[in-house]
Amino acid sequence: MDVLALEAKKETGPEPEKKSAPRPKAKPPKKAKRIVYFEVEIVDLKTKEKLLLLDKVEPTATILDIKALFHKSYPKWYPARQSLRLDPKAKCLRDEDVLQTLPVGTTASFYFSDLGPQLTWGTVFLTECAGPLLIYLMFYFRLPFIYHRKYDFTTSKLWVVHLACMCHSFHYIKRILETLFVHRISHGTMPLRNIFKNCGYYWCTAAWMAYYINHPLYTPPYYGQQQVNTAFYIFLFCQLGNFSIHVALRNLKPPGSKVKKIPYPTKNPFTWIFFLVSCPNYTYELGAWIGFTVMTQCVPVAFFTVVAFVQMAVWARGKHRGYLKEFRDYPTLRSSILPFIL
Length: 342
Fold this sequence. Notes:
This protein is α+β, with helices and mostly antiparallel strands and 342 residues long.
């Protein structure tokens, strides 16, 4: 090293030592969240006897999960047959309710009641519709032991009788096809005992109507063919409207979903009635039966139409109240079944 370099090093002094960068402190491991398990007690609603105690039930378990666990201990009570409540006088809990969202502590008591043997809603609808279809045709073809022997297997000479049979058959065939291919039924099952009540009503009223419309002494409507044609157009219009509403409601709910949405009109003109009515499927159904009543001018049909209107009005008002309760932005202009009236 030369002399100049040594002199420069003396003047500047020794080079500072390089300090190593501090190492980052290791983060302490995250503590795993402690899961608080529930203890579920299932009590018989009538006898107040303790049926089952479920220990360490996860807080995210649904009522359907609890029913499945209960079913393992009591195989005869499958989930669809069970009703669980938080209080003996309270409503049944829904299958999708989550345990940790219910107003219970870590020890929860549920009251169990047996709903009895169950049938799927699809089976009930098909049975309800197939009966009137077959029963009406028995009277239309005048099978033996219905009317006088001389009328067995004869046909009426009145066009309105044949048109009424076609309309009645079309209505129930449409309902069967809708049950198979259109409807998405949110409720899985219904009690077996209800099928006897429902089928008894539909089957008996169908027989009552068919007996008089197909009777050999049946007389045509007072205003003749003009009345029949007008009523037929009303019937057909309302049937198309009813089908359009069912398709719109089906498209509103994806397969397997139970999320409720507000139904709105679509491009289909038959759905524009949603601007005024919450349950237009019932409105069109009522219109179809009014058309059938005017077409046949038959008292049993009029009776069936009035009873059907009362029942559909009850259903429609219940759904309308449900919409208002669930959706704050629900259209206030809508009525339940009849625009501006009901």
